[in-house]
Design a protein that fits this description.
The chain is 78% helix and 0% strand. It has eight helices and no strands.
Length: 220
């Protein structure tokens, strides 16, 4: 083990915590937005359905990187200033909310209408039919693809370094640049990037495995 390994490992370990923190907050924000968008899509109000559809089409049709750059660089021009970490969470959360919203919407719309009709025929109100009949079935169907979307959000967190966040990938690049200009000039890029790749692979593989396990357990 050479003398560069331990300092780089410690530095990347701290950056990994930043990446995990960003991923967690992004997932929370995207889930809240996704639930809201799914609710709007099922509304009886035409305007509410239009707003939900507009949000989905807008944020799914734009690369997540462009949303990050817009939040960080454009919003301050209208007085909405955010730090790199906040901008990253908001940008990825807006993008992820559109994708998760589609997952929830698809799950709700996959439930046959006769399920609600049957519940109403048994004397349940519209709200009770939704809570006790429709939502439990929709949740079972939405859970596996929802966990899959979490994998996508974790992968997207690698983009946050473009707005100045010291995430795992950005910190790896910084260490490579430093090592290239000190000592023997060897950047050790292969070893460092392989380490980062392995970390992302382990996280995403675990989430993918969780999605598969949930799908088998729920048999959906």
């Amino acid at each position: 083990m050479t003398n560069w390994v331990w300092p780089v490992t410690l530095y990347l370990g701290k950056s990994l915590l930043v990446t995990l923190w960003i991923s967690l907050l992004t997932v929370i924000l995207a889930t809240i937005l996704g639930l809201l968008i799914a609710a709007l899509s099922q509304s009886t109000l035409t305007f509410a359905r239009f707003v939900g559809r507009l949000y989905v089409e807008l944020f799914r049709g734009v690369p997540s990187l462009m949303i990050l750059l817009f939040v960080f660089f454009a919003l301050p021009q209208i007085g909405l200033r955010t730090g790199p970490l906040t901008a990253a969470i908001i940008g990825l959360g807006l993008w992820g909310g559109a994708n998760i919203g589609e997952v929830f919407r698809g799950a709700l719309e996959s439930i046959p209408h006769r399920q609600e009709q049957g519940a109403r025929a048994l004397g349940l109100s519209a709200t009770e039919a939704l809570v006790f009949v429709i939502l439990p079935q929709a949740f079972r169907r939405a859970l596996p693809p929802y966990v899959g979307q979490l994998t996508v959000l974790v992968q997207a967190s690698a983009l946050t370094s473009v707005v100045g966040v010291s995430d795992l990938l950005g910190s790896a690049r910084q260490m490579i640049e430093r090592l290239a200009y000190v000592g023997t000039g060897d950047s050790h890029a292969i070893e460092i990037y392989l380490g980062v790749l392995s970390i992302f692979f382990v996280i995403c593989y675990a989430l993918s495995g969780l999605a598969s396990m949930i799908e088998r357990c729920l048999r959906v």
